[in-house]
Design brief:
The structure holds two protein chains of two kinds. Chain A is globular and about 80 Å long. Chain A has helices at about 1-30, 30-60, 70-75, 80-85, 90-110, 120-140, 170-180, 185-195, 205-230, 240-265, 270-290, 310-330, 345-375, 385-405, 415-440, 445-475, 480-490, 490-515, 635-650, 655-660, 665-670, 675-680, and strands at about 520-525, 530-535, 535-545, 550-560, 565-570, 575, 580-585, 590-595, 605-620, 625-630. Chain A contains 22 helices and ten strands. Helices cover about 60% and strands about 10% of the residues of chain A. In chain A, strands 2, 3, 4, 5, 6 and 7 form a six-stranded antiparallel β-sheet that branches. A four-stranded antiparallel β-sheet of chain A has the order 1-10-9-8. Chain B is mainly α. Chain B has three domains: about 30-120, Cytochrome C biogenesis protein (Helicase, Ruva Protein, domain 3, Orthogonal Bundle), CATH 1.10.8; about 125-155; about 170-205, no CATH class. The radius of gyration of chain B is 31 Å and the shape is elongated. Residues about 1-45, about 50, about 160-170 and about 185-214 of chain B have low confidence and may be disordered. The chains are: A alpha+beta, B mainly alpha. At the A-B interface, helix 10, helix 13, helix 14, helix 15 and helix 16 of A face helix 1, helix 5, helix 6, helix 7 and helix 8 of B.
Chain lengths: ~675, ~210
């Protein structure tokens, strides 16, 4: 298997190099055949990498410990399911995964790229395959996943205990795919600029691939948060850890881009700016790769292989230079079609949105870099962690939420102050009323109240829009449901966006609830003892344990009472892995619903709060130390996921109504396929 | 009319759902913490739960401190996130010191003396470290000024109208005025076609209202 894998990597290197060089040569020489052969060669490179991945997975599943990477990241004791995904548990294998998934996504992007991008496609292929060549070279020289083991004792080391969680099947693949996928919209725009297609030919390709990558990345981040919530044992889900930061930065810039690209699509403005954003997010993704693979930071996510860090740093600097040169070269051709008509317009709103997102990005970047800066300039090691980020980024995030309530009510081009007032009066009124109500009810956490008020503003603005839209449909004779559906279909990017905003509201509720209203206690309990937190009485009944080859697992059996009623029986566990000298916990989470709805599964029932219990320590004297916390509104964090996916799908769905709008443009180039359609989401 | 009623009902329910949540969440200060099952000198760090109101206040302060101190041996985890022995010990020490009447700054100083400044989760706002705190607001302020200039420049018409429509396929924006004219000429009705134009379908409000405004 090792030989097959290495051969595939060599083959992929040759094919990708040929695809990159051949396509540019073909374009320069005007040889369509050469370009076509290069294009097909890129498909074959994707196939070769897929076989390489298959070889590594096969080696894991069959416990081929003669391969050092397999020996170091699996053993016979772990459950069989995890051997299928253990290939991305470490540095070398995850690099192979990144390479393969990136190439696969590139192949799909090349395959479905619209005909109108024909002149720039060779350069798009060259950029994408150039990245593949870089990755494969690193794999073959510095991080060979197929390197033989120095000895084979027939048993592996096993995989890091923190990775033995269902999240392992989804979070790493999505997260890594999203981060490397950012190169695809960047390749589309750079290729188009190099080929001289400097107008909006690249716009749909960049927008659709950007949104797909954004959705993958968002899902990866959210599932990562859920993973952290259930396994790290402190009831949190985001800690502004350096690796989380480098993953969120490209996401923030991408979020700015998918907003401002609409201005270019609708108004022919912000062209230059959008190109700059795409370059920025690409470089930030490379920065993330560098920090993750041996960068000088401490993190729960680090791979800790520092030799290849400098290679990624070099690649990042090269990316930066490349993006700059392309941008400066085509800069004069990227001017807007028309001036900004008014500060009171959606264009201006999007500009402010971009400014705020880049503000959060900058703050996060600064927070990641300051410890290095301090060590260098002041010779003092400092930590920049959650309290700092919350204080600095919190207000900017709040401003983004408020803008999210106001922006959608601003029309394109221009409007008058009185019209804005008329549109905003209801949402602002509702928001103020809600804040007053919350305050009166006894919640005096000022920032939380303002936060809830801002979320209400967003919700009210969306509902106001929809209400009026549906009223208009009803006048045309449609009922409420079909009227809403027709309205959404009439402009899917817009209303899909609103649904994503609703997902952000749910996320916001969860963030505010857990950050401001969490209660917790760390208590040692002997069997039979109980502890009361808020209205829950937690009784520790006893412990079960199980000894396995690789670990000792202990369950704390717990009964939870509210009043005299027993509402739950929970069994959180803690496992100790001697090989790693490391413990892993799994929290027991009991979701207490807002209202009891019979027959409705708990995960569908709007949650009020989570009772969250982790055994942090089993003491010699038979007692167990429990971390008990009440996490209000945590359910809302996870429900935002499905809402957000529905919204993204609607925004991306190839919409007949939307296509009709571009009829004249399509008539000019009769065979132009709509990239949204062919991408198939 | 009944649909409007249903719609309003749903809207209001959704709003209440969104807005009413905090009503059900009791703030920490009001919490009933503990029923007395505590041995203050056990081997593990203890939540201070016995005693009158001021002890609950003390526990709240202790938990606040836990989020501001980093476990010295774990990668970037604050004390409240970490359960290794050293952080369990630190949790107990900071509670003892709070009970002795020391304030947050004194306790932080104590840990800084022991483990160095990196034990603080956020750099202190003094000396060189002030830079951490000053740079982001300064950058945002600078950004606002820059943004204002950019917007003013864009408004003056730093655009390239000649290039519009000649360099390649036209944008929808380019077509909007033309499409609106076509629609008027053909006097087409119905949603989807009538909303071709930028200024109607994609803006708040329905067509009649908007055109009246313009």
């Amino acid at each position: 298997m090792a030989n097959l894998g290495t051969m595939c990597l060599l083959l992929a290197l040759a094919l990708a190099a040929y695809a990159g060089i051949g396509s540019v040569a073909g374009a320069r020489l005007g040889s369509g055949d050469l370009v076509m052969s290069a294009r097909r060669s890129s498909y074959m490179a994707g196939l070769a990498l897929a076989v390489a991945v298959g070889a590594l997975v096969y080696a894991f599943v069959t416990h081929d410990f003669s391969i050092e990477y397999v020996r170091g990241h699996s053993d016979r004791a772990q459950s069989q399911a995890f051997t299928w995904v253990a290939m991305y548990a470490g540095n070398e294998g995850s690099l192979l995964y990144i390479t393969a998934i990136f190439t696969a996504m590139s192949v799909v992007a090349i395959y479905v790229s619209p005909r109108r991008l024909e002149p720039s496609r060779p350069y798009v292929i060259a950029i994408l395959m150039g990245i593949t060549v870089f990755f494969v070279t690193v794999l073959l020289t510095l991080a060979d996943p197929f390197a033989p083991a120095p000895f084979d004792d027939g048993r592996g080391v096993g995989v890091n205990p923190l990775l033995r969680h269902p999240g392992m099947f989804i979070h790493p693949p999505l997260q890594m795919a999203g981060l490397v996928g950012i190169a695809i919209p960047f390749a589309f725009v750079s290729g188009a600029l190099i080929a001289g297609q400097t107008r909006d030919q690249w716009l749909d390709a960049a927008r659709v691939s950007g949104i797909v990558v954004w959705a993958v990345l968002s899902a990866g981040l959210l599932i990562g948060a859920w993973w952290a919530y259930t396994i790290l044992g402190w009831g949190g889900y985001w800690s502004w850890d350096p690796i989380e930061n480098v993953a969120i930065m490209p996401w923030l810039v991408l979020t700015a881009f998918i907003h401002s690209v609409m201005v270019q699509k609708r108004r022919g403005m912000f062209r230059m700016w959008n190109v700059a954003l795409l370059g920025m997010m690409f470089v930030l993704a490379q920065f993330g790769l560098f920090i993750n693979r041996g960068g000088p930071v401490v993190s729960v996510h680090s791979f800790g292989a520092s030799t290849i860090g400098s290679v990624f740093l070099g690649f990042m600097l090269f990316s930066l230079a490349f993006a700059f040169v392309v941008f400066l070269w085509r800069y004069p051709a990227l001017k807007s079609d028309r001036p900004l008509e008014s500060f009171l317009s959606r264009e201006a709103g999007f500009l402010v949105n971009n400014f705020l997102f880049l503000g959060v990005t900058f703050v996060t970047f600064w927070g990641v870099l300051f410890p290095l800066f301090s060590e260098f300039a002041n010779n003092e090691t400092v930590t920049v962690s959650a309290p700092w980020y919350n204080q600095i980024n919190g207000p900017i995030l709040l401003a983004i939420v408020i803008l999210m309530g106001i922006g959608p009510l601003l029309p394109w081009r221009r409007t008058t102050m009185s019209s804005v007032q008329r549109w905003l009066s209801i949402p602002i009124g509702v928001s103020v009323a809600v804040m007053a109500l919350i305050w009166i009810s006894g919640v005096h956490e000022t920032w939380a109240v303002i936060g809830f008020g801002s979320l209400t503003l967003v919700m009210a603005a969306v509902l106001e829009e929809w209400y009026r839209g549906v009223l208009a449909q009803r006048r045309a004779g449609h009922n409420f449901a079909s009227g809403w559906w027709r309205m959404v279909n009439g402009n899917r990017p817009r209303h899909g966006g609103y649904i994503v905003h609703i997902a952000i509201i749910a996320l916001g509720i969860g963030v505010i609830g857990t950050n401001f209203f969490q209660q917790r206690a760390d208590v040692p309990l002997a069997p039979g003892e109980s502890f009361t937190l808020d209205e829950y009485r937690v009784e520790y009944v006893g412990t079960d344990n199980e000894q396995r080859v690789d670990r000792v697992s202990e369950w704390a059996n717990i009964h939870v009472y509210r009043g005299d009623d027993q509402i739950a029986t929970l069994a959180p566990w803690r496992a100790f892995y001697p090989v790693f000298n490391m413990a892993s916990v799994r929290a027991a989470v009991h979701n207490v619903p807002l209202v009891d709805i019979p027959l409705l599964p708990g995960y569908l029932n709007p949650g009020l709060e989570d009772l969250y219990i982790v055994p942090s320590e089993f003491l010699e004297d038979g007692r167990v130390v429990l971390r008990i916390s009440i996490n209000p509104a945590a359910w809302w964090l996870w429900v935002s996921g499905p809402i957000f996916i529905i919204g993204t799908l609607i925004a991306l769905w190839p919409a007949p109504a939307f296509e009709r709008r571009t009829v004249p443009a399509r008539r000019r180039i009769p065979s132009a396929p709509q990239p949204a359609g062919s991408a198939g989401v | 009319m009944s649909y409007a009623v249903i719609f309003r009902t749903i809207s209001i329910t959704a709003l209440l759902l969104v807005a009413g949540l905090p009503l059900f969440s009791q703030p920490v200060a009001h919490a009933q913490v503990g029923d007395g099952t505590v041995t203050p000198d056990g081997p593990a760090p203890l939540t201070v739960t016995t005693g009158p109101e001021q002890d609950r206040e003390l526990e709240k302060r202790a938990q606040g401190l836990e989020t501001q101190l980093i476990c010295p041996i774990c990668p970037g985890e604050t004390l409240d996130q970490s359960f290794v022995q050293i952080s369990q010990d630190m949790k107990r020490i900071l509670r003892e010191k709070l009970l002795e009447g020391q304030d947050e700054d004194q306790i932080k100083d104590f840990f800084v003396d022991r483990y160095g400044p990196s034990v603080l989760a956020a750099p202190p706002r003094s000396g060189f470290n002030l830079v951490t705190w000053v740079v982001p607001p300064a950058a945002v302020a600078l950004g606002i000024i820059l943004l204002a200039f950019v917007m003013r420049g864009m408004r003056r018409g730093d655009a390239d109208p000649v290039a519009a429509g000649v360099g390649g396929p036209v944008t929808e924006g380019d077509l909007s005025d033309y499409l609106a004219e076509v629609d008027r000429d053909l006097s087409l009705g119905g949603p989807g076609i009538a909303t071709l134009d930028d200024d109607t379908g994609d803006n708040p409000g329905h067509n009649a209202e908007r055109s009246a405004e313009d």
